[in-house]
Specification:
CATH class of the largest domain: Alpha Beta
GO molecular function, one term: transferase activity
Helix content: 10-25%
Protein name: Aspartate carbamoyltransferase regulatory chain
Radius of gyration: 17 Å
Largest sheet: 5 strands, antiparallel
Distance between the termini: 40 Å
CATH superfamily of the largest domain: Aspartate carbamoyltransferase regulatory subunit, N-terminal domain
Keywords: Metal-binding, Pyrimidine biosynthesis, Transferase, Zinc
Family: Belongs to the PyrI family.
Strand content: 35-45%
Order of helices and strands: EHEEHEEEEEEH
Function: Involved in allosteric regulation of aspartate carbamoyltransferase.
Bound molecules: zinc ion
CATH architecture of the largest domain: 2-Layer Sandwich
Shape: globular
Number of helices: 3
Length: about 150
């Protein structure tokens, strides 16, 4: 037990564990966690038996929406989300890349109809080597997750 607590325990909130090392900063940025007034405890480059190194983020008094959790899966393949209440894990799920993603990012193709019509972006996701490719439902162009995540 003492080995496992590399970062201070929280009473209530969400712990994102097993984040691939180096991705923790992106997640903080992407979810705008630093702009909110929630308390955040982070551990970067922690030793991990399974991964070598990992990042971990603990957010007090926050539960992610489904859309946030889906975005997270792009940056943190293999990460786990632990929902904490009274210092115990009450719910736990693995982040998996969703098959489709609606409205999370604008289409990087500036000629795409989604920029001119009142429709949400809609992507089909496919894992490819270390990358995730997102194919736009409307313009049918395919993008790396790295391009989409810069937007
Ligand atoms: Zn498009």
């Amino acid at each position: 037990m003492t080995n496992k607590l590399q970062v201070e325990a929280i009473r209530k909130g969400t712990v994102i564990d097993h984040i691939p090392a180096g991705q923790g900063v992106k997640i903080l940025d992407r979810l705008h966690l630093l702009d909110s007034d929630v308390s955040i405890t982070v551990g970067f480059n922690l030793p991990s038996k399974a991964q070598g190194r990992k990042d971990i983020i603990k957010v007090t008094d926050l539960k992610f929406t489904e859309q946030e959790a889906n975005q997270l899966a792009l940056f943190a393949q293999g990460a786990t989300i632990n929902v904490i209440d009274e210092y115990s894990v009450v719910d736990k799920f693995n982040m998996t890349v969703p098959e489709t993603l609606r409205g999370a990012f604008p289409c990087p193709n500036s000629n795409c109809i989604t920029h001119n019509e009142p429709v949400s972006s809609y992507f089909y996701l496919r894992e490819q080597n270390d990358d995730i490719r997102l194919k736009c439902h409307y313009c049918e162009k395919s993008f790396s997750k790295d391009i989409v995540s810069e937007l």
